[in-house]
């Protein structure tokens, strides 16, 4: 039986890998649960590096999950967005997500990658694993892993801006606060000022609740869509709108009768809001 110290040491890392790989919290938890049960059945005395052994197990289980889920996501009603994680500082399992260097926006872009490309990208860019370690995890050679990473970066046009991350986060929080004030007061002019010309809003309802089934593009259409929602629901006394930390960044949560109804995430580009992600699917919202 694995003791509490074992879970405390390994579960945050394993969960962080699984969550980044598959983009959903409950499935990531299930993968970790299954991996740890299987690990209990192994002879750990024969394992040289337990951490690497567990990470390999989680990586390959996540790859298998993505392969099986691929068809379901292809027929998903509207855009499929990752499940947002509302950060709880008191939960040690989320500690590595708080230190996240992969934004929510980048997490959505990873959906363009194949399961193996996603594994190599996450292990290298989020956790800094060396290529020989990654190769041993996914049973590829080092040269192949380097090529896979290069291909993955090109697919999502990835640029590593970690050195500017703290500046971007400060700017993001300021813009989100401005966005929230402008949206709730119906200030169209202010919204247009903080949205980039090619702004895009993605809304994920999964066919379970009303949501835009195609992305809304250009700042004028995005602003009109937002102000239209505010006109429709802005006077609803049952709604509570406030700032929250989502995947380590500033976001918005909308509650109705204390039940989460919408989580909104943002991505900033050149001091303006470029992407807005509205997650409305009840299955992806936190349970209060």
On the 0 to 100 scale, the average pLDDT is 89
Main β-sheet, in a few words? 6 strands, mixed
Broad structural category: alpha+beta
| Uncertain segments | none
Radius of gyration: 20 Å
Basic shape? globular
- Total helical elements: 11
What share of the residues lie within helices? 40-55%
End-to-end CA span: 32 Å
Strand order, biggest sheet?
2-1-6-5-4-3
Number of separate strands: 6
- The percentage of residues in β strands lies in 15-25%
Q: What is the chain-wise order of helices and strands?
A: HHHHHHHHHHEEHEEEE
Keywords summarizing the entry:
six-stranded mixed beta sheet, 6 strands, alpha+beta, 11 helices, 16% strand, globular, 288 residues
Description:
The protein is an alpha+beta fold. The chain has eleven helices and six strands. It has helices at 4-22, 25-40, 50-74, 95-98, 104-109, 115-126, 131-138, 142-156, 165-185, 188-194, 219-233, and strands spanning 195-204, 216-217, 239-246, 249-256, 259-269, 272-279. Helix 7 crosses helix 8 (142-156). The mean pLDDT is 89.
């Amino acid at each position: 039986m694995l003791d509490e110290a074992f879970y405390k040491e390994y579960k945050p890392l394993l969960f962080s890998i699984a969550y980044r790989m598959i983009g959903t919290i409950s499935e990531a938890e299930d993968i970790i649960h299954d991996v740890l049960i299987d690990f209990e059945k192994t002879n750990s005395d024969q394992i040289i590096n337990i951490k690497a052994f567990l990470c390999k197990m989680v990586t390959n289980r996540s790859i298998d999950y993505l392969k099986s889920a691929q068809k379901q996501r292809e027929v998903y009603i509207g855009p499929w967005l990752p499940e947002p994680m509302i950060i709880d500082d008191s939960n040690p399992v989320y500690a590595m997500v708080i230190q996240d260097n992969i934004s929510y926006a980048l997490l959505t872009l990873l959906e363009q990658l194949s399961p193996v490309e996603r594994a190599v990208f996450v292990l290298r860019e989020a956790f800094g694993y060396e290529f020989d370690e990654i190769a041993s995890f996914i049973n590829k050679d080092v040269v192949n892993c380097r090529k896979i990473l290069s291909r993955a970066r090109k697919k999502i046009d990835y640029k590593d801006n970690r050195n500017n991350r703290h500046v971007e986060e400060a700017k993001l929080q300021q813009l989100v606060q401005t966005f929230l004030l402008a949206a709730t007061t119906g200030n169209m002019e202010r919204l247009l000022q903080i949205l980039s010309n090619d702004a895009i809003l993605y809304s994920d309802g999964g066919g379970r609740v009303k949501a835009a089934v195609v992305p809304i593009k250009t700042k004028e259409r995005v602003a009109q869509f937002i102000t239209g929602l505010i006109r429709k629901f802005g006077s609803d006394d049952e709604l509570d709108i406030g700032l929250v930390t989502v995947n380590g960044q500033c976001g918005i949560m909308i509650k109705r009768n204390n039940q989460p109804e919408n989580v909104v995430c943002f991505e900033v580009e050149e001091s303006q809001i470029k992407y807005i992600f509205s997650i409305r699917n009840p299955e992806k919202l936190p349970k209060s």
